[in-house]
Automatic annotation (TrEMBL):
The name this protein goes by in its record: YoaR-like putative peptidoglycan binding domain-containing protein
Alphabetical keyword list: Membrane, Transmembrane, Transmembrane helix
Claim: Transmembrane is one of the keywords in the record: yes
Regions that span the bilayer: 20-43
Pfam families: PG_binding_4, VanW
Highest taxon listed in the record's lineage: Bacteria
InterPro entries given in the database record: Glycopeptide_resist_protein (IPR052913), Vancomycin_resist_VanW (IPR007391), YoaR-like_PG-bd (IPR022029)
Amino acid sequence: MSRKPPISDDQPRDKAGAKVVVLLLLGLVVVFGGLYVAAHYAAGDKVPRNTTVSGVRIGGHSQAQAAQVLQAGLADKVNRPIATTIDGQDVEVDPSALGLGVDYDASVAEAGGEESWDPVRLWNYFTGGDSFDAEISVDDEAYQAALAALDEQHGTPAVDGTLSFEGAEIAKTDPTTGEALDPADTLTALRAAYLQDDPSVVALELVDVVPDIDASDVQEALDTFASPAVAAPVTLSFDGSDVKVFPADYTAALSLVPTAGELVPTLDAAKLTEVVGSKVTAGAAVDASVALVDGRPQVVPAKPGVTFDPQQLEDGFLDAVAEPQGERTLTLDAQVAQPAFTTKDARALEVKERVSTFTTYFPYAEYRNVNIGRAAELINGTLLKPGETFSLNDTVGERTEANGFTEGYVINDGILVQDLGGGVSQMATTTFNAMFFAGLEDVEHKPHSFYIDRYPVGREATVAWGAVDLRFTNDTPYGVLIQANVTPSTPSSSGVATVSMWSTKYWDITTSTGERYNLTEPKTRRVDTLKCHPNVGYGGFDIDVVRYFDPVNGNTETRDDEVFRTTYIPSDTVVCTNPDATDG
């Protein structure tokens, strides 16, 4: 039989002591916990007390406040020019122009100004703080632009080697090494000096810049392409025929373009097609036409031609031109080129007979022989299809010496003055009357400002390049062939200008001329110029000419009478007052 141990009087005392210890520990936890929380809130996101950034004390401030303090403390340094030398020359550079700046928020964060429960962070706040360099930011675009400006002022650009063609010759530019600031080394040196308390002068060094296209690249392009290109002609073979194209002709379509460090052969396909096309002109299609043969209109048949595929030429030419002599042949597939205006089209115009003709006469003057004759030469043989409009200015072209014209008298501001092409209005008047009696549609014509008695009154026209034109439209269903010729004047005989229209007659044209009315008197004008042409004046007047249309040859159209109303101003009497004036 067991016994229970006797109860000791010490047990109640032990339990009481344990409770005291526990309560004491809990009290300490509460006290230290409160102190820790208070320390955390005291530290917040403040920078450790003893912290400096680039010499500016920012400790004990919140991040936002520390950034402001740092910005204020660095203001002088941030805006201070950086003293440098470039190749021994003193140069001050503006940091802002270089894109240099300070990231204040990042600088504060790097210094440890962040909120945390980490006891190490709290300990560092109250007892720590180091010295840091500010975080420097760089605007790369601004930096590259500023560096380029410094290179332009103090450096020397590298020059690429080039090859080009001048006819059958090769022009070469030798490459040249340049000098420039090294972007990485320059930025490192400038960053290091940017915020120093007592910055020293930064020595910036120019380094060699090798051209993209150096001497070896030029030599390779010369050996593999340029020299072979001008060594011999290229033979184009198509449809059993060979055509040689020579370097002096085709090199205008060749170039060597710098690409990825090489001179790459490049072809202007349009220029090459033009060159080759000029060499195979005999194989080009020829449109049908209508011409006078032995005084009668005849259809000149169209001719098909042989041409080539420009794409096939473009695809193979660069390879062919780089081949050695004896292998420089490019075979092209022949293609039949059809004329745009066929023999059938020309026959359908039914140009069969002379439907009108008109002749004018002009007094002797060598400039008239030249200018009227040249205008007739350019007009003669013009073929107007139904619906087409004739323009004398477009057909004859600008009256220049290069176009075969010389100086003569023209009417300007009511008086005669000298200008290129004087006399061409004689051909305009003659052509206008031939059009008038052929029954074609008058689109634009302008009579002379005052009446010239060798022209039919109210039925005449003048022209001036870029200002006044003679235009008419073939509004018949047939083609119209214009024939123009001139018999030159001589000191003893008048010149003769004749224009005829050949077609199928569609209208029978008659005309009437009214009486002169609204008569006006001439004035006397005194001209004090070295070049003055005296003139005996005569009066001006208005006059009406009517054109009547009578349909013929099955024409069922009807057309109202057409009235041409002309106002002639007086031809003033001109008195030359300059004693040195010359008539011409």
